[in-house]
Amino acid sequence: MTATSPGTSRRPRPVRRAGRATAAVTVCAGLALALTACGSSEDPDAGTNGVGKLSAAKIRKKTVAAAESANTVHVTGKLVSGRSTYELDMQLAQNGGKGTVGTKDTEFSLLRIDRSLWVKADADFWAHQKDAAPSKSDTAAAAKLDGKYVKVPAEDRTYRQFSGFTEKEPLLETLLTLHGGLSRGAHGDVDGTRTIRVAAAQGNGGTLDVSLDGEPFPLRLQRAGGAGVIRFTDWGKRIGLERPDDDQVVDYGESLGSGN
């Protein structure tokens, strides 16, 4: 080894800065990416079925088509019609439906399979099916129907009154009606499902929340004029419609004389 004398000058070795420079570039790039992300807004329609980007009229058209194509649906909520208010809990299929309907004074169960309709209610419900106050014979006849499935003839007024609650297409056609010019509202959420809102007459004619996940099914309806809020769930899920046991059925016949 050759020693360097104190009087001999020595050139300093160059410092290797490549590693530090690379690290600095990486940090800067990450910082720039973070700042870009913070400055941008997330697309609310990303990963959805895309109807949120359509016009209000097209959204409604697609949601009505989706509702018609589904074989079943579960309808719950409040329905105000004229002077009457109904609490609905109905499972509807193409060939019938089942569930309960409540009013201010009573609650009754409905079951329809094809053209056969059964109604189950208490004695007081049946005693008041006539317009006039029930007679003693009406009350006695109604007592036999208490808690039973009463098969109602298709030509009877009671059938016409209640079968509509079990008919999927007519009921949905009525419920999904909005009144006034349509506009696209805000994105939202119904029970964990992303939605887009369609409003009629700026909300005064009703609002409809449509699913952005999967099929564009209607999920929640606010009816015009505060006439109730309806929810739609279980689209396409199987509904078991079974005839009641014979020992639980009473033939309506002419026992109450409700007439046509």
- How many beta strands in the DSSP annotation? 12
Terminal CA distance reads 124 Å
| Beta-strand residue percentage | 25-35%
The CATH class designation is: Mainly Beta
CATH topology value? outer membrane lipoprotein receptor (LolB), chain A
Task: Quickly count the helices.
Answer: 6
Class by alpha and beta content: alpha+beta
What does this structure look like?
With 260 residues, this protein is α+β, with helices and mostly antiparallel strands. It has one domain (51-251): outer membrane lipoprotein receptor (LolB), chain A. The protein has helices at 18-39, 56-69, 123-127, 136-143, 157-162, 168-175, and strands spanning 72-81, 84-93, 96-102, 107-113, 116-120, 149-152, 182-190, 193-200, 207-211, 218-222, 229-233, 249-251.
Question: What's this, in brief?
Answer:
By secondary structure, the chain is α+β, with helices and mostly antiparallel strands. The chain has helices at residues 18-39, 56-69, 123-127, 136-143, 157-162, 168-175; strands at 72-81, 84-93, 96-102, 107-113, 116-120, 149-152, 182-190, 193-200, 207-211, 218-222, 229-233, 249-251. The chain starts with 17 loop residues before the first helix and ends in a 9-residue tail after the last strand.
